[in-house]
Fold:
Amino acid sequence: MDLSILIKAHSGIAILALIIYIVRGVMMLANSTKTNSAVVLSIASVITLLLFGLGVYIGFAQKLSFADGFILTKLISLLLFVAFGTIALKQGLSKIIASGLWLFGLLAFIYASLIATHKVAPLF
Structure:
């Protein structure tokens, strides 16, 4: 398969993951019980898995090393996005703490996107 098509698909999945994350954040702020419903969690999990899986596949297809600063920083940023989001969107946290963690997750995602588009340099 053409690698440019996979990269475009990866970008589209990233945008979809960001939209889902923002919608879930708004739902969390509105105290919606659907924030952590089985359907919403399943969709978010599948999209995130596709984002990671396709990213790793593209990395292998381009013969990139996981010791490369670009890949390592992007992976760490995306893992922080998932970790902060997972904690923030759980019920039982105060709105201030949940909102702060959610914003940290959003910042991690934005940073990973900026690295992917070569607008900022990786940390490593």
Observations:
- The chain has a mean pLDDT of 91.
- The chain has one domain: 3-116.
- The first helix runs from residue 3 to 29.
- Residues 3-116 form one domain.
